[in-house]
Write a structure and sequence with these properties.
about 475 residues; alpha/beta; Rossmann fold; 9-stranded mixed beta sheet; 6-stranded parallel beta sheet; about 20% strand; globular; binds adenosine-5'-diphosphate
């Protein structure tokens, strides 16, 4: 099968969160199964664009409302990522330093989708499946089935994967003129709550819809930022497929970003070396348990509660624990997290920002990884932690529920039910007690490093879904 993935992110080209990791890995694993999977994404001004070789495969224009923009599509020459990568360059719209966060994001992603389809519409052969990821590519199923320009592509099956239903990309009907011509009687396929809603439209128009974990599929039937009734209506074509992780990138035995590589046999000495190095850099005490948090500092992740959780834990533990945070997001949370450093230097530190290499070092050097999420469609951090022998402390929600079992239930992690200061504090206490039993901790580390969360299984599940 030939599968085209459309996405706003793809690691290592451009990554903001889990979407990038998924689109950077799934196509590679689909190719390993003998299929031909390709990725089409915007060409941002990222390092990857300037450090690799490309050939031009398409030159044209994209019409967006009353303006025309030049389009150039590049193909990465060496198949470096294990799949064909196509970058859509639209001068003045996509060629920015960041992936998101601009006032004209709506225009940018509409133009990306139209330009990509204009290009595919010219191909002599046609792909077997078009797989769209999140709202940035959510208008594609509608355009394929309704716009005159793409009518000859309308028989191509489309799949939408919802990585996060909180973000829907909605915009006003005053921007309708940005879309290619279609039969206006079909406008209801774009509409949700009197706006054009790309995620809702994709849920309506895609042939199949997936969420990134089975539990998240259940949860969005009652909590999906306003899309609950739509998802209930379309439930018949929905499936939950748990994300995998890219074992070629995330393997402590071969990870060039670590201070010391390690495997299941050398996990104790390996983790100690990485913990020592981290504690050295961040002025922490490597003889004490190291708790960490990595992620976007937003409400979904429970980040607003982290400062209070950490103040309490540091006070109650009487200097017996360390905490290290890596993240960025809400400036108020960032400030509050930084403030703790002044009071608990030597026991606590925070790196505010995005740092891929540091995240690997933390997964390797930490004892525990906290994920007190309010919403977690899948969550990859807990799977990276497991692979690097770090015990996850997670809220029982979404993909966290599908991947982590509590030690009290014969499992290997610490689970709690609510995103509250009290519940997370209690979980931190349980982890502290566990840490005192080093024999058990060692057994758990060996066990979790062996858990298989690779993409092999999920890549096949997607292929099965395409063929249904
Ligand atoms: P989400 O996509 O909701 O942000 P996921 O758990 O699915 O959450 O994926 C998060 C990914 O982003 C992981 O690869 C994690 O290591 C990475 N990440 C998040 N914040 C940072 C950061 N500040 N620095 C480096 N990596 C980060």
């Amino acid at each position: 099968m030939e599968i085209i993935h459309f996405s706003a992110e793809c690691y290592p080209v451009a990554k903001v969160g889990g979407l990038g990791d998924v689109v950077g890995a799934l196509p590679k694993y689909q190719n390993k199964l003998g299929h031909v999977a390709k990725v089409v994404m915007p060409a941002y001004n990222t390092k990857f664009l300037f450090e690799n070789e490309f050939e031009v495969v398409y030159d044209g224009w994209v019409r967006l409302g009353y303006n025309n923009y030049p389009v150039r599509i590049f193909r990465e020459r060496t198949n470096k990522l294990g799949f064909d990568l196509f970058l859509v360059h639209i001068a003045g719209l996509l060629d920015r330093d960041k992936v998101y966060g601009y006032d004209d994001d709506t225009e940018r992603f509409i133009a990306f989708q139209i330009a990509s389809l204009d290009w595919i519409a010219q191909w002599e052969h046609k792909p077997n499946v078009i797989h769209c990821h999140d709202h940035h590519t959510g208008l594609i199923p509608f355009m394929l089935s309704n716009c005159q320009d793409y009518r000859h592509l309308s028989y191509i099956p489309t799949v939408l994967t919802i990585h996060n239903a909180q973000y829907q990309g909605q915009f006003g009907w005053d921007k309708l003129h940005y879309l290619p011509v279609y039969d206006l009687r079909n406008s209801s396929k774009l509409d949700w709550n009197s706006s054009i809603n790309p995620l809702a439209s994709a849920i309506k128009c895609a042939w199949r819809v997936t969420t990134v974990s089975p539990s998240y599929l259940e949860e969005i039937s009652y909590k999906a930022a306003g899309l609950e009734s739509l998802l209930a209506q379309e439930r018949g074509k929905c499936a939950g497929i748990l994300n995998g992780i890219d074992n070629e990138v995330w393997t402590p035995q071969k990870d060039p970003m670590l201070s010391k590589a390690f495997n299941n046999r050398t996990v104790e000495s390996g983790k100690k070396a990485n913990k020592d190095a981290l504690c050295n850099i961040f002025n922490l005490d490597s003889t004490k348990p190291l708790y960490t948090f990595i992620g976007r500092l937003v409400g979904e992740k429970g980040a607003d509660l982290l400062p209070d959780i950490f103040w309490n834990a540091l006070q109650q533990s009487d200097g017996e624990i360390n905490i290290l945070v890596l993240g960025s997001g809400d400036p108020h949370v960032e400030d509050r997290l930084n403030e703790i450093t002044q009071h608990y230097a030597g026991k606590y530190n925070a790196y505010i920002g995005y740092n891929e290499a540091l995240s690997h070092q933390i997964y390797a050097g930490a004892d525990f990884l906290l994920m007190p999420s309010r919403v977690e469609p899948c969550g990859l951090n807990q799977m990276y932690a497991l692979r690097y022998g770090t015990i996850p402390i997670v809220r029982r929600i979404g993909g966290l529920k599908d991947t982590v079992t509590d030690i009290g239930d014969g499992g290997f992690g610490i689970c709690h039910d609510q995103t509250t200061v009290w519940d997370v504090g209690d979980a931190i206490g349980r982890a502290y007690n566990l840490y005192q039993d080093q024999k058990r901790v060692k057994e758990i580390r060996k066990f979790i490093m062996n858990l298989d969360h690779s993409w092999d299984r999920a890549a096949q599940q997607y292929v099965d879904l395409y063929q249904m």
